[in-house]
């Protein structure tokens, strides 16, 4: 990753994340197919709902006969963290038009968010429409195509998890987290390391009593609040 | 059997929900400034959320009880972290991660 914000650079920076979309997208297609959804529905869900975690939840709730409203609430709780991520990225794109802001926001994901946060460390904290839109669209198309392939081949293809592809996103977050801590000069190195440990503790505790649909949101809210307290007390 | 119409309604409804959670911050922040204290709060989002997304994968939840370890992901994380330190290259890190889990599953 470097300071270049061109379309070409956007493609280059996004390539490492695509294996995650391929692995999880294939897995989603296979799971949805085996749950009885047809290919059209699978592709539509990936194109319209476009949220990995939410889509797995939707399929399992559809199968268990959940009501429309309960599915919507679960998806909202699962997606509410995007509000926080959006608010973190959006200030860097204030100079872009409203239309471009809406386009960028529409396709923002956990992964393109994390990628952007890393990119900022190489660009003197600047990001533009061209770069982020390229990352977003590549991720979006890869996700739709991968879930479509998973859905059309169904059980014909071997479980992609056998090849470790389901670890791609975790590996990516490990990489982005490490690079973020190394490169981000806006927050003390020590404080960032402390926050990783705080988050480990919060995640462990949260897993005991917070349903998985709410966990990431609660951990993020409490973690950031603790971060402010720790920063003001010790840094 | 689920009706096509109901599933489509769910997809569109959920699509609206995920779209709104994505787009609202961009629309609001185009027009308004965030208070400094909230900006400080948000400055912790990247490190906390990336850590949380990783650690979530290291445990298996048993609501009401202590979580157990996801041994496969935990073991695969070790070479992944080491490759991050050595290479500082995302493509290498992801490749090492995938390969590590594949080998662990193959051996198990």
From TrEMBL, chain A:
Its membrane topology is listed as: Multi-pass membrane protein
What biological-process terms (Gene Ontology) are attached?
L-valine transmembrane transport
In terms of InterPro entries, this protein maps to: Brnchd-chn_aa_trnsp_permease
Pfam families from the entry? AzlC (PF03591)
Q: Which UniProt keywords apply?
A: Cell membrane, Membrane, Transmembrane, Transmembrane helix, Transport
Cell compartments where the protein resides: Cell membrane
Q: Where are the transmembrane segments?
A: 15-32, 39-62, 68-93, 137-157, 163-183, 195-228
GO annotation, cellular component aspect: plasma membrane
Instruction: Indicate whether Transmembrane appears among the record's keywords.
Output: yes
Q: Give the domain of life.
A: Bacteria
Q: Which family does it belong to?
A: Belongs to the AzlC family.
Protein name per Swiss-Prot or TrEMBL: Branched-chain amino acid ABC transporter permease
Give the organism, scientific name.
Answer: Fructilactobacillus sanfranciscensis (strain TMW 1.1304)
From TrEMBL, chain B:
Q: Does the keyword Transmembrane helix apply?
A: yes
Q: Which organism is it from?
A: Fructilactobacillus sanfranciscensis (strain TMW 1.1304) (Lactobacillus sanfranciscensis)
Transmembrane helix as UniProt keyword: yes
Q: Which UniProt keywords apply?
A: Membrane, Transmembrane, Transmembrane helix
Highest taxon above the source species: Bacteria
Task: Give one Pfam family, short name only.
Answer: AzlD
The name under which this protein is listed is AzlD domain-containing protein
Membrane spanning stretches: 6-29, 41-60, 80-104
């Amino acid at each position: 990753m470097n300071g270049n914000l061109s379309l070409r650079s956007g493609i280059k920076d996004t390539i490492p994340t695509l294996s995650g979309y391929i692995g999880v997208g294939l897995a989603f297609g296979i799971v949805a197919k085996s749950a009885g959804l047809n290919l059209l529905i699978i592709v539509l869900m990936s194109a319209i709902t476009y949220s990995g975690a939410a889509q797995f939840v939707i399929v399992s709730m559809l199968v268990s006969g959940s009501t429309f409203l309960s599915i919507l609430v679960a998806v909202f709780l699962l997606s509410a963290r995007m509000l926080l991520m959006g608010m973190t990225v959006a200030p860097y794109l204030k100079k872009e038009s409203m239309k471009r802001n809406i386009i960028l926001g529409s396709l923002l994901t956990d992964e393109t968010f994390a990628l952007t946060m890393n990119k900022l460390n190489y660009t003197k904290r600047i990001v533009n429409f061209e770069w982020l839109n390229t990352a977003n669209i590549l991720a979006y198309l890869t996700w739709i195509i991968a879930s479509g392939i998973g859905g059309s081949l169904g059980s014909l293809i071997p479980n992609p998890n056998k090849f470790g592809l389901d670890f791609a996103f975790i590996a990516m977050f490990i990489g982005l987290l490490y690079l973020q801590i190394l490169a981000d000069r806006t927050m003390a190195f020590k404080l960032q390391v402390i926050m990783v440990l705080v988050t480990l503790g919060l995640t462990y505790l949260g897993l005991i009593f917070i349903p998985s649909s709410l966990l990431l949101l609660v951990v993020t809210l409490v973690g950031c609040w603790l971060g402010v307290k720790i920063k003001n007390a010790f840094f | 059997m689920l009706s096509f119409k109901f599933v489509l309604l769910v997809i569109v409804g959920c699509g609206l929900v995920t779209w709104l959670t994505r787009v609202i911050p961009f629309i609001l922040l185009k027009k308004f400034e965030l208070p400094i204290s909230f900006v400080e709060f948000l400055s912790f989002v990247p490190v906390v959320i990336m850590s949380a997304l990783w650690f979530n994968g290291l445990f298996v939840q048993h609501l009401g009880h202590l979580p157990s370890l996801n041994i496969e992901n935990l073991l695969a994380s070790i070479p992944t972290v080491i490759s991050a330190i050595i290479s500082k290259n995302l493509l290498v890190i992801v490749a090492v991660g995938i390969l590590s889990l594949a080998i662990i599953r193959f051996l198990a």
